[in-house]
Amino acid sequence: MISRADPSRPGVIRALRGLLVATAAATVGVELLNLWYAPEHGFGLAVRTGWALLRTVGWLVLIWHVGRGRAAARPLGLILAVTTVFAVGRLVVPRTGAPPLAGVLGFAMLTALCVTVVVLLYRHPVVGDHLTRHPNKLTVTRAGLEWREAVPKRPPVAAWALTARIAAFTYSPLMLVPALISVGELGSRPEWLLAVGFWFVAGIGTSYAVLLSTFFLLRGKPWAPRLLVWVTLGVLAVDLPLCRLLLGLDGLIRDGVPLIAAAMLVLYSLWRVARTPAPTVAPA
Question: Which helix (H) or strand (E) holds 148?
C-alpha cells in the first residue's frame, strides 16, 4: 500500500502542503510579533490574538484535507486565507500611531502566502485533479462492513455552494469575538449589559440559522439561497451597529470589516451558484 507521504505524490501537492505549513507557522509568528510590539495589552487585544491563534487549527485541518485529496479543501482554504488576512491585519494596526515595521513586513509576507495558497487551490490543474475525493464512511457491502470512500448518490454539490456554507459558518465566531471583547467595557458602561447579552444570543442563534439554511442549500432547494441572504443581512444589521456603539470606530473597523468580508464572500458564492447549471447524475 502506498503511504500518503509517499514521494510518488505529485510534486505540486507536496509543495502545497509545505506552503500550508509555512502559512500556519507565519500566522502564529506574525500574531505573536504583533502582541510583542503592541503598546498596550488589554482584554480586547488578548481576545483578538487568541481568536487569531485558533485559526492555526484551521490551517492544520486544511493540510489534512489536502493530504487526502478532499474536495472541501478549496473552499476551506479560500475562507481561511481571507479571514486570516483580515484577522492579522487588524492586529497590526495600533489604536494610535503607525504600525511597527516588523509587523508590516510580517503581514505582507503572510498576505503573499495566503494569495499563493488560493491560486494553487483554484488555478493549478494538478491540484484540481487531486482534490476530488469524498469522506470515508462505514459502508455495508456483500463482504460486511467496510470503511471506504462514500460517493454521494445525489448530484455533486457545486463548489461555490460549499464555499458559501463554509464562509457562512464564520458568522457566529466573528460575532462572538467582539461580543466577548465588549464584556470588558461593562465596568465603565453597565447600562449596556442587556445589549451585550443580546449580542451573545444573536451570535449563538446565527450558528443555527446558518446550519439550517446551508443544509438545504447543499440539497439544491431553490429558496435556500434567499434564506441565507436574509441571514447574512440580519447578521450585518445586528453586529455592525453593536460594534460601533460598544467598541467605537476602532472596534467597527477591527471586528466589523472581517464580518463584512465573510458576508461578501457568501453573497458572491450564492451569485455564482445561481449562474452555475444544476449538475445531473448519469443514469445507472
Answer: strand 144-149
Q: Which amino acid is at 222?
A: P
Taking the complete model, does pTM exceed 0.85, yes or no? no
Residue 99 lies in a domain: yes
Q: Which pairs from 196-205 meet CB under 8 Å and 24+ separation?
A: 196/246, 199/175, 199/238, 199/239, 199/242, 199/246, 200/176, 202/175, 202/235, 202/238, 202/239, 203/172, 203/173, 203/175, 203/176, 203/179, 204/172, 204/176
Q: How far apart are CA 174 and CA 53, in angstroms?
A: 14
- Which residue type sits at 153? K
Alpha helix (H) residue ranges in 38-147: 43-67, 73-92, 101-123, 125-130
* 238 and 204 in a common domain: yes
95 belongs to a structural domain: yes
Q: How confident is the model at residue 117 (pLDDT cuts 50, 70, 90)?
A: very high
Q: In the listed set 109, 135, 161, which residue is the last one of a domain according to the structure?
A: 135
Q: What is the pLDDT of residues 74-98, one digit of tens each?
A: 888 888 888 888 777 766 766 666 6
Helix (H) or strand (E) holding 1: none
Domain of residue 238, residue span:
151-275
